[in-house]
Specification:
Layout (H helix, E strand, L loop, with lengths): L5 E7 L11 E7 L5 H9 L17 E6 L3 E5 L10 H17 L3 E9 L6 H12 L4 E6 L6 H15 L5 E2 L8 H11 L2
Parallel strand pairs: 2-4, 2-5, 5-6, 6-7
Antiparallel strand pairs: 1-3, 3-4
Length: 191
């Protein structure tokens, strides 16, 4: 798959406000500060498509981006250690689970995991949740440029074992490692 155009469409918290044009969707999900916005920008070839913040928990809505005018990339609120009240985190959880379960346009969920640390309990639960609900998914190991080659190989093995899956894609927004593989994975599920 090649991205030739990308633009922000809308942010929303309510299903009633989701796009209604039935275009296929690729969701980006992961813990707060895992690099969802950076990865989305790298795939879209635009440095400022999705807003990037140094503080976790800034994505508090479901954000839709039009890709090639025939597909949406969907940036979901992060889970984990965001410094926001528990009540708001609970709202995000309901919003994200509702989107993932009730969106027939969703063709693939990209679960982003920081390669520098073992998958967290939240990562494990999200992977199990996606598998349980039979949502097509792939695991992307972000920030891969932060590790040496041997450390990255160990990180991939550890994540495969912990998450009970194979075919993880190491990704770096700096070196673009994994960009082609991620776009190819998206291309296999969209028509």
């Amino acid at each position: 798959m090649k991205v030739s155009s990308a633009r922000f469409i809308k942010s929303t918290q309510k299903p009633a406000d989701f796009p209604r044009d039935q275009l296929q969707e690729i969701a980006f999900i992961g813990r707060s500060n895992v690099g969802k916005s950076s990865l989305l920008n790298a795939l879209a070839n635009l440095g400022k498509l999705a807003r990037i913040s140094r503080s976790p928990g800034r994505t508090q809505t479901i954000n839709f981006y039009s890709i090639n005018d025939n597909l949406y990339f969907v940036d979901l609120p992060g889970y984990g250690y965001a410094k926001v009240p528990k009540q708001i985190q609970a709202t995000w959880r309901n919003m994200v689970e509702g989107y993932l379960q009730d969106r027939p346009q969703l063709k693939l969920a990209l679960l982003l995991v920081d390669c520098r640390i073992p998958p967290t309990q939240d990562d494990i639960l999200m992977k199990e949740w996606l598998d349980h609900y039979q949502i097509e998914n792939a695991v992307i190991l972000t920030k891969s440029d932060k590790l040496s080659r041997s450390q990255l190989i160990q990180s991939v093995k550890r994540a495969e074992t912990t998450l009970g899956t194979e075919g993880l894609i190491p990704f770096s927004t700096v070196t673009r490692l994994g960009k082609k593989e991620t776009l190819n994975k998206i291309g296999t599920v969209v028509s």
